Amino acid sequence: MENTSLQLPRSRPEALGIPGAAILDFLDEVQANGMELHSFMLLRRGQVAAEGWWGPYAPELPHMLFSLSKSFTSTAIGLAVHEGLLSLEDKVVAFFPDDLPEEVSPNLAAMNIRHLLMMGTGNDQDTMGAIDRCTDGNWAKAFLAAPVEHTPGTHFVYNTGATYMLSAILQSVTGQTLLQFLQKRLFEPLGIHNPTWESCPRGINTGGFGLSITTEDIAKFGQLYLQHGKWNGVQLIPEAWVKEATSKQISNGDGGESDWAQGYGYQFWQCRHGAYRGDGAFGQFCIVMPEQEAVLAVTSGTNQMQEVMNAVWGRLLPAMAGEALPLDEETQNRLQERIRSLQLAPLAHSIRPELESAVSGKSYVLDDNDMNWSRISVRFEADQAVIDLYETGGKHFALPLGRGKWLEGTSDLIMPRQTSTVSSFAWKSPDTLELSIRFIETPFHITTDIRFETEDAVVLDHRINVSFGPNEAPPITGKA
Asked: Source organism's superkingdom (predicted)?
């Protein structure tokens, strides 16, 4: 069945051949293995069989996709090729004559758009390292200066810098960013509202990461690919491109049980069981299962990405029947109750020590630390607290936290822009205050313990749930 509307239709799982018990089993496995999912939406035959959000995450909130953005970049390139703006055989160096190294190696000269798409550029490592080290904001020049050790097309290396180059090439040809180019061609026809995409210092969308959309938007994208690029009677993406982009273009391992070793297409991973996917760091997924006529969209804050897919293959995929199943009211009621109860709870308020009033509003100067924090204070009120945090450069963050409940706000504490937050606090012991802040448009959740050694001396222990670097910072000491 083809979905033709802007809003995905809803149905009961049994009507789509999925027993509700299988979805409960999936949720049980997620919980039992400590996987922090933020949302899921399971489609079959163009309809939503089940969906859920772990509060405080919510349907209307966009979520950072990280590398799942790459599949959208691939789509833009496919459309540009279809419109005659690009060819997959176009050489990368031709688009950047002013940014080339003094000596262009034969391998760099041979690199084309197809090689960028298939992660077969010939680089021995991801060029984002070189890009991160560049100081002039010219990411393309940094990419082109990186060594190309292998003949392009012969060697797979996951290369986010290559996807950025696709974005830069598209913008150089069209004069539009990826976001602008896809607006009328993809986002508006699918009813994807207010997508955002991060940019490099020169105003080029980052391509390999940086897109933020909702869970249902991810599901629509997967459904579009399942429908061979057709939506609402219109062929939005050429069918031939869908087939090529989602087929194996290069080997990336020996198969086995890893879903990162089944082959790679044009910014789509091959999966076991005849499926394919786009995915992003910390558990962002768009899994397309053609044989089952199914799509699964997931957002998360977890490092257990293979375990999430194992739960899909073990619990959901084998349970999908060819025909509708008899309605099981009891299981359906249990499933709906389970979905309604999904939540990531705030810190539980239990005690309110005398120390609270003594330290309320007191400012603590912090010793030099990796977080670049210079000063902190906590002001307590009846049902909330406000953290005043200062960086060494003088920037001030005021963070309201609910007492044993989530308190909504916005912050740019760990992001380059203001993003939605929920925060809570509780005393975990008479001398230790725990702070919990969730950045609910991202995978990130930070926790800070403030241990009051005396009323005038503190030790801060700071950690983050997922990170490309360390998850814990060294203890930070401070004095009033």
From this structure: Bacteria
